[in-house]
Amino acid sequence: MAAIKIHEENDQNVKSIAADIKPKNKILFKITKFNPHVDTHMKYVDYDVEYEHWNTVLDALLMIKHKVDPSLALRYSCRQASCGSCGMMINDKPSLACFTKINELGSDVVKIEPMSNFPILRDLAVDFTQMFNTHKKLKPYIIRSDSEISQSNEIKEFSQDPDSVEKYIQFANCIKCGLCNSACPTMATDSSFMGPQALTQAYRYVSDDRDKGKNTRLKIIDERHGIWRCHFAGSCSKVCPKGVDPAMGIQFLRSYLLGFRD
Q: What does the domain layout of the chain look like in residue ranges?
C-alpha cells in the first residue's frame, strides 16, 4: 500500500509540473536578406519562430540558420556581450543580438537589419574595415619615449594609483562592436568621419597618465573629419552595451584641444 501511495504522489507531482510548463511562444522575425554581389535591392524574409522566455535574438537567428535557412549570413562569437561580433539593427535600434532577450522587446514582430553606416557584406554581416583602420590610426596603445623604457630586456611595469585608473577605466571597456558608429547621425552624412568609437579610444589613452602620445593623437583628430564633426547628438552613448559613454569621452577630448586641460 505504501508503494502505491508513493506512485500516486509522484504521478500528481508530474502532472503539477506539466501544468506549470507554459507552451512555447511564437513571434514573427522579419530579416533583411541582401547579397551586394547578386541582388539589386534588399528584401525582408519572414520567419515564424518559437521561443522560450529566456531566448535571445541570437538564439532565434541561429535556430533559423540551422533549421530553416542555412543561407542566412550573420556574425557572432562569444554569445555573452564580450566580443562585440553580433551587432545589428533590432527593431530599428543598434543592439547586440546576444544581449537582447526576445521577451523584453515588447513587440509581436522582430525586425532585423544590418547595422547602419557600414558596408553590407551579406544579409546581417557588415564590413568593419574602415572602423578598425580608423581605430589603428589613433594609436590605441601606450606610447612611451625610449628614455623611459628599460635598456634591458626585462619587462617593466608602470604602476598607477586608483585615482589615475579611474580617469580612463570606463573608456577601456570598449569591445569595438560598432553600435556607437551605427547610431551616429554624423556617420550617416560623412563617411570619412572618424566616428565615436575611435575618438573615444583616443581619449582613453590621452587620459592615461602612463601615456606620452597626447600631442600626437590630438593632431590626428584636429581636422574637418575629426572631432569637430561631432554634433553631440548623444546617440552613441544610448546604445553602448558596456556603458562606455562615447559622447562624454569626446567632450572631454575637446577640452584638451580648447585648452581647458593640460
A: 25-126, 129-149+158-257
Homologous superfamily of 129-149+158-257: Alpha-helical ferredoxin (1.10.1060.10)
Exposed / middle / buried, residue 21 (Cβ in 10 Å: 0-12, 13-18, 19+): exposed
Task: Give the pTM.
Answer: 0.86
Write the pLDDT tens digit of every residue in 146-197: 655 555 566 777 889 999 999 999 999 999 999 999 999 999 999 999 999 9
Q: How far is the C-alpha of 215 from the C-alpha of 194, rounded, in Å?
A: 18
Of 87, 82, 71, 95, which is closest to residue 131 (Cα–Cα)?
Answer: 87
> How far apart are alpha carbons 232 and 249 in whole angstroms?
11
CA distance linking residue 118 with residue 221, whole number of Å: 21
Backbone angles phi, psi at 42, to 5 degrees: -80, 155
> Cβ-count burial of 84 within 10 angstroms (0-12 exposed, 13-18 middle, 19+ buried)?
buried
Q: Comparing C-alpha atoms, which of 97, 65, 92 is closest to residue 81?
A: 97
CATH 3.10.20.30 fits 25-126, yes or no: yes
| Backbone dihedral angles phi then psi of residue 28, each to the nearest 5 degrees | -100, 125
Alpha carbons 232 and 193: distance in angstroms, whole number: 13
